[in-house]
Amino acid sequence: MINDSGKEQKNSKDEALYKTVIVSEYFNPVRIIASFFVVLMILAVMFVYTYSQRKNIISNAEQVTNQMAEYIAGNIANETNFAETSINFAASTISHTMTSKVLENPSEIITPMLENTPFGGIEYVRADGMNVMNIGEAFDASDRIYYIEGMKGHTGVWNNYHPKTSKETLMNFYTPIVYQEEVVGVLTGYIAARSQVVPLFEKKLYGQEMSLLPFFPVIMKN
Can you give the pLDDT at residue 221? Predict the structure, then answer.
């Protein structure tokens, strides 16, 4: 009996000692610190990777935007140069065919020219300010910038936000009509913002349809 009791006490002490060793090993400060640093390193690697990916995404977005802007700028420059050349050539042709200060039957001369220009229409304005070649009825254009400047002998372009014959904003390219060294009228060709300018802002980039229209709302203004 005494021996059995002694054995049980010894076994109990050994078991307690074993548990103490196991617990001490489990909560070993060195192991805890090492685990903490491992987790910290993993988080650091994840942060660096995420930051690097974010920078790559931003860089790629900037590159795509720059390419789109260059493409659109080139399109607009080409279209503008073509429009200026077209209206000047048309006015020169008309000037050489005129036999008086007033162009008779303007549609017969102007309509065939339209096919080889970027314009949605070409309008003839007499010296008295009447626009007699337009998409609607003849109207008084004496308050229009293209008439006022054109009669001064100037060539240019005017953004017509409130045209009298259209619901669209128009870009009017204008130039004077000269007969015997006298300005006798104005010729203006227009490009419609929605139907003609908008396509210049569309581009397929890397196989995807891209558009910069949200960044250029001014051309949509009426």
Answer: 41
